[in-house]
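Data availability (excerpt). All sequences and predicted token strings are deposited with the supplementary files. A representative entry, Prenyltransferase alpha-alpha toroid domain-containing protein, is shown inline so that the format can be inspected without opening the archive.
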Amino acid sequence: MNVRRSAAVLAAVAVVGAATPAAADPSPSPSQAFPSALYGGKDPKFDGVWRQSLALLAQDTVGVKPAAKSVEWLVRQQCADGGFASYRADPTTACDARTMLDTNATAAAVQALSALGGHDAVTGKAVTWLKSVQNKDGGWGYSPGGASDTNSTSVVIGALTTAGEKPEQVEKDGKSPYDALLKLALGCAGDGAGAFAFQPDKKGKPAANADATAAGVLGALGQGMVVKPAEKAEATETTGATRSETCQDKKTPEQAAANGAAYLTKALAEDDHLSSALAGADPQPDYGNTADAVVALAARGDTGQAQKSLSWLEKNSSTWAAQNGPAAYAQLVFAAHATGTNPRDFGGADLVKQLNATGPAPQTAGKARAAEEKSDSESGPFGVWWYVGVCLVAGVGIGFLFSGRRNRQQL
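Structure token line:
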């Protein structure tokens, strides 16, 4: 999923995370033109709810209690029917037919608010809305009624799981979300074997897409943006490609996830990162999708390549994260968490501090930091920092892994 909605990403899509020149400082505090409770200083029109949700979820993941007003801002973005738009400048105005609701923003909000706890009424209404806009093939598109895509379907699966639902039992016309994902998974022959497509092309043919594959692996495993830290690989057998190097018939979601993980490992193997390119431009490192791929591989226990790509991100992602702000920092936190890496010592940078600096000061940053430092001193560089106050989301990238949230555009 990529800061995934990844610009978030998951959505509808585009190239996420291409490199852009920027200062390596954290994003500035939100502009006074935007709500003071909002994380990030850029126009929130397309990603306000997405980036707020990822920021709050990442803080919760590392044991930091978000500012109460930031959580309340997210809650107030919900429409009466349970759905969330990408951003509502005036939440006191009722949503109407012109309000463009967004399955990805809604699913991200569910994951964040479920992890934080105490918002069952909000998440319950959101889940009911998501079920009401499920497509007949079992999946979801970015907007209600839009054709199902891998990223949207996967982020909704993560939301359902986090909210205590069983995705396989959420059906429309007898089809579950997993049926939709299997339909979007490529077979084992030809280019892109084992990958997931975002959507079929105009001719109805699916084409391999790395961003969609990272999201699809998480979705097929029934997981969200935050996954339980994987044990670090020790044996050489587990540090190569994946535990399932040979693509096999995608009869089950688990096998489709294995095939997708093998595809990602192969794509990452050459230089440990994914790349993307706009039309007519040279390929550039895709930091957001790489982070999502790390989470997806770690979710399967494929820690070898996940660790290598995480190390690449530690060395190369600071400028990208500073440019893209809270969602990007959150995405890196998810990748670090999934691999058992301390996000407060991410290539020498403190991702948590940088994330916190993009919005209102959290309630317990100081206490969480003190507890974490004590844990680190007792456990060593690869200690159990993530046990301190961690709230796991059952199942993000990635997506969720999902890069600053992308506007809806073509892949």
